[in-house]
Amino acid sequence: MGEKTVLCVDDEVNILNSIKRLLFMEDYELLTTNNADEALELLKAREAQLVISDHRMPRMTGIELLQKVKDIHPLSIRVILSGHVDVNIIVDAINKGEVYRFVTKPWNDEELKSTIRQCLDHYDVVQENLELTRRIQEQNEQLRRMNGELEQVVLDRTFYLRMSQDILDDLPIPVVGVDDRGRLILCNHEARQALPSLSNAIPGNDAAAVFPAAVATAIRGSLDALMDVDVGGIAWDGRELRLQTKILMDKRRLRGCVALLHLNSKPRTGI
């Protein structure tokens, strides 16, 4: 994940020279300093993915330095390299997160190289996890916005559907809706009031089970022919009615029809 920088801090120049010779051919930039204050100044100007520090140094111990490094670059991996240190102090520093690893002096060259690679790999894993977390948070935020927008769309559509139903119920003429398979979808308040047989009709009932044969036949014919029909003189619930249908299409696909039931003002006699 890009070029890495490793900073080594040790008050003994010969130790730093040994580290330079050992890591000369590694695929990361190596910075060294024998002064803890100088190390902090370097880190203020640039980030080091790994900071390795001796523990016993004048003016500032290695753990104290790495605590300050943590404040400057919290994600930098921090390692203590020392041959004289209280193990309890190191364990406490590791548990508190100031130090990731402890390497003893004198070190094994291959083990030190391997430890550095492991630390840099760990840095990459942490970065990948942070990036994944960031993306998940962005996606969650996007999903939250989309859900909010969807909820608003549902609320808007629910409002318009209720308004449409209210308008339909307020019409002074019986109106029924039938789908493309001839099943009852809706009937308005006037239809249920004027035609008792519709008062108990259930949406989804076949037209033949709900309407008189003449009405069901006219509706089926309208759907099959994809044409509006206008049929009068039909008897229903002791009333005479005129049936008008309006075919509903959606991009040349039949959706059903709306049927207007024009009733005589008074029931017919002798029926």
Describe this structure in words.
A hairpin with a 2-residue loop joins β8 and β9 (239-250). This protein folds into two domains: 5-133, Response regulator (Rossmann fold); 171-263, PAS domain (Beta-Lactamase, 2-Layer Sandwich), CATH 3.30.450. It has a five-stranded parallel beta sheet, sandwiched between helices. The chain is α/β, with parallel strands linked by helices and 271 residues long. 25% of the residues are buried. It has eight helices and ten strands. The termini are far apart. The chain is 46% helix and 23% strand.
What's a quick, concise take on this entry?
This protein is an alpha/beta fold and 271 residues long. The chain has helices spanning 13-22, 36-45, 62-72, 87-96, 109-170, 189-194, 207-210, 213-225, and strands spanning 5-9, 29-33, 50-53, 77-82, 101-104, 175-179, 184-187, 230-236, 239-250, 253-263.
Mean pLDDT reading: 88
What Rg do the Cα atoms give? 42 Å
SS-derived structural category: alpha/beta
CATH topology of the largest domain: Rossmann fold
In sequence order, what are the helices and strands, one letter per element? Answer: EHEHEHEHEHEEHHHEEE
Spell out the blueprint of helices and strands:
Elements: E1 5-9, H1 13-22, E2 29-33, H2 36-45, E3 50-53, H3 62-72, E4 77-82, H4 87-96, E5 101-104, H5 109-170, E6 175-179, E7 184-187, H6 189-194, H7 207-210, H8 213-225, E8 230-236, E9 239-250, E10 253-263
Parallel strand pairs: 1-2, 1-3, 3-4, 4-5
Antiparallel strand pairs: 6-7, 6-10, 8-9, 9-10
